[in-house]
Amino acid sequence: MKKTYNLSGDIFIAAAFIILPVGILLKLLGIEALIWGITASGLIKLTGLSLLFSIALNLHDLAHA
Question: Distance between CA atoms of 58 and 52, rounded to whole angstroms?
Fold first, then answer.
């Protein structure tokens, strides 16, 4: 059993868990552009990317275990 726990994958899952409802809420309210050109669609895409990156980190951990 591993003595250390890699937290990086869980951080990206938590970020996706927070970003997705915010993006959906902004999309439903009709707010398109936030500061610095961030859009609601961009937030939803960022959720998918963070989940994919979390999967990649977990697979990397499994390969080196």
Answer: 10
